[in-house]
Amino acid sequence: MNNLENYVYKKLGDDHTGHSYLHAKRVESNALLIASSEGGDLSIIKAAALVHDTIDPKLFADTEKESKELQGFLKNEGYSEKDISSIMYIINNLSWHVEVLTPGPLDTIEGNIVRDADRLEAIGAIGITRAVEYGANKGRDFWNEEEMKNISSGKDINPKDDTTIAHFYDKLLKLQSHFVTKTGKELAKKRSQFLIDFLNELKEETPSQ
Ligand code: ADP
Ligand code: NI
Hints:
Layout: H1 3-12, H2 21-38, H3 42-51, H4 63-76, H5 81-93, H6 96-101, H7 109-120, H8 124-137, H9 145-152, H10 164-170, H11 182-205
Helix pairs in contact: 2-3, 2-7, 3-5, 3-7, 5-7, 7-11, 8-11
């Protein structure tokens, strides 16, 4: 492991909410794949992809402290002030929550690449495993009785329900139209279709009542 990977492993190695070290590594791979056709500064892309969840308020109570620690670490690793601010801009702005408040692309190519790379992880087969893992970790049911009836009869699911299936309607199915890079959009199309196929299969397997 290099020093960056080691830092992330120490922070997220025991995460069970879909933000593990392996998630960070896959975001890095996705980001490098997108960057191979989109360009961007690879050193910023790699660092931002790896550390993107190490200051997430869902995971850390004191994000101010985590943010300072991360910046100190990056400085020690030899990143310039400018690079550190580019990395911090990305990780402070890549979440879905930020886009709901301020829709649209980020200000940098590196930001759009890392954001698309992270979003790919929320859809497709991996996205389903992460949603199930997150829901289970929070003690949520996958679905409730009413949702099960609605699925089997083709009725809508309330996206604000407190279940994992509701999260598909609240966020996951919406993601496809919010990708920015060409490669990200292409990969998102297939992964998003897989979510739809999964929900259709669920409908077929659910007994009608
Ligand atoms: P990301 O790391 O992609 O920014 P989040 O931090 O929002 O994603 O969440 C981590 C994973 O858990 C994602 O795959 C996301 O879809 C899933 N998740 C987040 N909120 C919920 C929820 N309420 N129910 C089920 N899964 C969720
Ligand atoms: Ni992430």
